[in-house]
Automatic annotation (TrEMBL):
This is Tetratricopeptide repeat protein. It comes from the Bacteria. The keyword Oxidoreductase does not apply. Residues 1-23 form the signal peptide. Pfam families: TPR_16, TPR_2. PROSITE patterns: TPR (PS50005).
């Protein structure tokens, strides 16, 4: 089902965090601070300030709504429940308050209350209301009514697949694996969209039907040969003849959690991240060990630059969960963005020790080390990853490319060149590799024809990439084709106006064609953008004595000689 159709059915509404509240002397300060925190998606600060504002104005509906939103986004749904009750008591209908109260009732096992409130007119969104009703009937032990409710949800325009998926989960949860397989396989009403959770749930159903071979075939078709450790472990158990238990859903509360996760997954990428996060957090509230919901929440927090909260979320995945390695990769990335690079590297080192046979772990460690210019250590990590490759695959180019950069920065050019060539063998038209290798050849004044061909191919692939356009202009300059270099260097400077290297290069090109005043202007600009110390010193020397004298002092060919070919 198209995501945009799902959004329409869900009745997607804008959040109210930016709307005005009554601001008197006791509430204005905390309220303004809370609004700023909400604008920055700083859920922790927003929760604190809105709660403080409520102390002065406890019946303000907008403050109540925004405090509840902040608490749910923070993952503290328990604290949001009494606020949702207060909103309901005041008679102010609110979609999120209804969702929070519904989730709390499902968690408390108050299934009769859920049904009664829905009958009395409580509304959230058509998909949610229909599926939650079905799971509440399931929780009451009324399977016939539950199945009828799932069918009613499936009958709504555009959300048939969602209803069928949940019906299959419910059937499997009560041991009707044949019925569940009929839905999952598409025999009932057509194939379902192959989500990761759906595929694994179907694999467990097939295993319960003593069809492990079919489960393995399903997994291989869905995930291919390069699977994560969790899927690999499950596949190995199937291959070993184990009967996998069906544990995706073990009760109505987890079924409700799956509803909220389903909605969050449908919204992800199409709705505001903050709105999607609310559904993911409600899924976590109902199923605290649901690693998929945790990972989704953490990813949404990362997307909002809330790296500390994302780090906390990733840490909630238990060590014995198959998704632990993915959570640790995410946690390390969040730590790095939060400025704790050393902590991220140590996390990745520990993960590499725990999962020595997972290439992506070593690659991620290598990337983190390379970002800190620890190229020798990065090489060891990339070597470990490449040693795990069984067969050449297109996606491996980036690992050889990263290792090649590390070799190059360590002045190990033969090894670097071999890695770049291997990357191009796997991905012949990869513009990053073409540019890096071509630029390196230009800088070394070797293989110039091939170098320019590589750079031109890279520019054709990415005409708006400033770095690659700079390489083309610089290559032409190194070949003495100064006039040809000018428009390319000017375009590179337009694409990357505050890059010190690009501005420095443009200055050199201007000098070479006799536009010396403009050259000096560009060198001054380059200095203002904080170039590396060695480059800054060279630029100052050019400003003092001119490029010709600098080249002569460096023993480089003079511009005239280069221009003459």
């Amino acid at each position: 089902m198209p995501r945009l159709a799902a959004l329409a059915i869900l009745g997607l509404a804008a959040l109210n965090t930016a709307a005005p509240a009554r601001a008197d002397l006791g509430v204005s300060g905390p309220y303004l601070a809370a609004r700023q925190a909400s604008f920055l998606s700083d859920y922790r600060a927003a929760a604190v300030y809105y709660t403080e504002a409520l102390a002065s104005d406890p019946s303000n509906p907008r403050l109540l709504e925004n405090a509840m939103t902040a608490l749910v986004g923070l993952g503290e749904v328990e604290k949001a429940v009494p606020i949702a009750r207060r909103i309901e008591t005041l008679g102010n209908p609110d979609q999120l308050a209804n969702l929070v109260l519904m989730a709390d009732q499902m968690k408390q096992g108050q299934f009769d209350r859920v049904i009664a409130d829905l009958d009395a007119g409580r509304q959230t969104a058509p998909l949610v209301d229909g599926l939650i009703r079905a799971w509440a009937e399931f929780g009451q032990g009324r399977m016939t009514d539950a199945l009828a409710a799932f069918d009613a949800a499936s009958a709504q325009s555009g959300i048939k697949a969602f209803g069928l998926y949940h019906k299959a989960l419910a059937l499997a949860a009560v041991g009707d694996f044949e019925g569940a397989d009929t839905i999952f396989s598409g025999e009932a009403e057509g194939p379902l969209r192959a989500t990761r959770r759906g595929v694994l749930a179907h694999a467990e159903v097939l295993s319960q039907l003593e069809r492990n071979d079919d489960a393995i075939e399903l997994i291989d078709a869905a995930f291919g040969t390069e699977v994560d450790p969790g899927v690999a472990a499950l596949r190995a158990r199937l291959a070993g003849g184990d009967a996998l238990p069906f544990d995706v859903i073990d009760g109505a509360a987890q079924g409700a959690a799956e509803v909220f996760f389903t909605v969050a997954s449908a919204l992800n990428g199409d709705a505001l991240d903050g709105y999607t996060l609310l559904y993911a957090r409600l899924a976590q509230f109902l199923a605290p060990k649901n690693a998929d919901a945790i990972l989704l929440s953490a990813g949404l927090l990362e997307a909002q630059d809330r790296y500390e909260l994302a780090t906390e979320a990733y840490a909630a995945v238990p060590k014995d969960d198959p998704a632990f390695y993915a959570a640790e990769l995410g946690r390390a990335e969040s730590m790095r963005h939060a400025g704790d690079v050393d902590g991220a590297i140590e996390t990745l080192r520990g993960l590499a020790a725990t999962y020595p046979d997972v290439a992506i772990v070593h690659v991620t460690l290598g990337d983190a080390l390379r970002s800190q210019e620890r190229f020798g250590d990065a090489l060891k990590a990339y070597d470990a990853a490449i040693a795990l490759f069984d067969e050449p695959a297109r996606g491996q180019w980036i690992v050889y490319y990263a290792r090649g950069i590390s070799h190059e920065r360590l002045d190990q050019w033969p090894e670097a060149e071999a890695d770049f060539r291997k990357a191009l063998e796997l991905e012949p038209d990869q513009p990053q590799v073409l540019n890096y290798l071509g630029y390196s050849y230009v800088e070394m004044n070797t293989n110039l024809d091939e170098a320019m061909s590589m750079i031109e191919r890279a520019v054709a692939a990415r005409p708006d990439d400033g770095y690659i356009t700079d390489s083309l202009g610089w290559g032409l300059y190194k070949l003495g084709r100064y006039q040809e270099a000018v428009p390319h260097m000017e375009r590179a400077a337009a694409l990357m106006p505050v890059d010190p290297v690009v501005n420095d290069h443009l200055g050199d090109v201007y000098w070479a064609v006799g536009r010396k005043v403009e050259a000096q202007f560009q060198w001054h600009r380059a200095l203002s953008f904080d170039p590396e110390d060695a480059e800054a010193e060279r630029i100052r020397k050019k400003l003092a004595v001119g490029l010709d004298k600098v080249l002569k002092d460096e023993g480089a060919p003079p511009l005239r000689a280069a221009n003459d070919g």
